[in-house]
């Protein structure tokens, strides 16, 4: 990726990026989005190819993210869900479990069972 004519935020800045199908394409600042995961500090940028309309996402090092952000590219920061840090034990969820869950949801009293489970866990 290469940025030309920097300086102003947005107006006139052309960013050259590579589409896997079309090769080098030229984009303007509003065509791009920069994404950073605050948990891992990994970044990426995304665009829709102006030629073939393919959605392209590429990893980017922090200096590239900084460059894009300074040019006015929309920056989104997210964190990985805390559930990834949870300890899990017991058997893995299987396709049979999924089918049983689906069958259970077809019965009219499934929500009462959920309420009873929640009530039970609140009494601990
Ligand atoms: Zn393309």
Topology:
Blueprint: E1 2-4, E2 14-19, E3 23-28, E4 32-37, E5 43-48, E6 55-60, H1 62-70, E7 74-78, H2 95-105, H3 110-122
The structure holds zinc ion (ZN).
The site of zinc ion has 7 residues, from loops.
Describe this structure in words.
- By secondary structure, this protein is α+β, with helices and mostly antiparallel strands.
- It has two domains: 2-78; 90-122, no CATH class.
- The chain has helices spanning 62-70, 95-105, 110-122, and strands spanning 2-4, 14-19, 23-28, 32-37, 43-48, 55-60, 74-78.
- A hairpin with a 6-residue loop joins strand 5 (43-48) and strand 6.
- The chain is elongated, with a radius of gyration of 23 Å.
- It starts with a strand and ends with a helix.
- The structure holds zinc ion.
- Residues 19, 21-22, 49, 51-52, 54 line the site of zinc ion (ZN).
What strand order characterises the main sheet? 6-5-4-7
- In percent, how much strand structure appears in the residues? 25-35%
Which kinds of small molecule does this entry bind, naming each only once? zinc ion
Largest sheet: 4 strands, mixed
* Rg, Cα atoms, Å: 23 Å
Shape type: elongated
The total of beta strands comes to 7
Residue runs with pLDDT of under 50 for 5 or more positions:
6-10
What's the N-to-C terminus distance? 56 Å
Structure annotation, total helices: 3
Number of domains: 2
State the secondary-structure class: alpha+beta
Order of helices and strands: EEEEEEHEHH
**What is the average per-residue confidence, as pLDDT, rounded to a whole number?**
90
């Amino acid at each position: 990726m290469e940025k030309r004519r920097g300086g102003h935020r947005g107006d006139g800045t052309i960013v050259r990026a590579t589409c896997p199908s079309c090769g080098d394409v030229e984009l303007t600042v509003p065509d791009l989005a920069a994404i950073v995961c605050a948990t891992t500090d990994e970044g990426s940028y995304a665009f829709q190819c102006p030629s073939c309309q393919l959605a392209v996402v590429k990893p980017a090092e922090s200096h590239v993210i900084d460059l894009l952000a300074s040019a006015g590219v929309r920056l989104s920061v997210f964190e990985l869900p805390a559930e990834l840090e949870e300890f899990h034990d017991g058997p893995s969820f299987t396709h049979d479990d999924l089918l049983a869950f689906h069958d259970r949801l077809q019965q009219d009293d499934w929500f009462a069972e959920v309420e009873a489970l929640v009530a039970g866990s609140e009494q601990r």
